[in-house]
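Dock zinc ion; give full complex structure.
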Amino acid sequence: MSHEIQILPSLRAADFTRIGEEIATVESAGTTTLHYDGMDGRFVPNISMGLPILESIRKVTKCWLDVHLMIVEPERYVEAFRAAGADSISVHQEASPHLHRTLSLIQATGAKAGVVLNPATPVHTLDDVLGLADFVLVMSVNPGYGGQKFIPAALHKIRQLDQIRRQRNLNYCIEIDGGVDMSNILEISEAGCDWFVAGSSVFRSESPATAVRDLHTRAVSGRQLLA
Ligand code: DX5
Ligand code: ZN
């Protein structure tokens, strides 16, 4: 997949009474990928949006829909989320003991497959699936809630993942999720990240369109420092 820098507004931070407008606003600022959180109240303590909302969103946007499943036994829902409109689907390493099979199942539906690491899970646990995954999502907060503080230890994981893909000549993208804002995005980009999920820093800001543009500009500067 292309390693082009992307800001992914996280829809769970949007105003659901006017979700179509919120999406149109970030699209006007250049957004081409949206992040969608699925939670089950079991893998994480919270419950978010399920299938019907994804179906509705699919109808109002041409954006790539990146679905992050924070649910137990995610393999049971892969096909349903794909049918509801997901373009990429990520599952947690901690929630899927048969990770190789689950990633293959996602790809068999035609979607791109990602694997997610909680803050407590080290990169080396993915050694044997990095050749299969289309992307790796590093959690920089404990999943379940928006608006939490960025955990800086995530930077080291991004660096490790970037180094491994160079050394092993792999092509996966690196995504970060949790607490990303103008104060840390430069450093995250410089560490080797490609996709930046941003919830509060986009939809809870005064101007979501300006926030998307500013975050993108700063992430691109970080990439230049890396190169
Ligand atoms: C956290 C979710 C995130 C969340 C990010 O469990 O996976 O996608 O929406 O929100 P912010 O950017 O506010 O931390
Ligand atoms: Zn997420």
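Observed: Residues 10, 12-13, 35, 37, 68, 141, 143-148, 177-180, 197-201 surround D-xylitol-5-phosphate (ligand 1) (CB under 6 Å).
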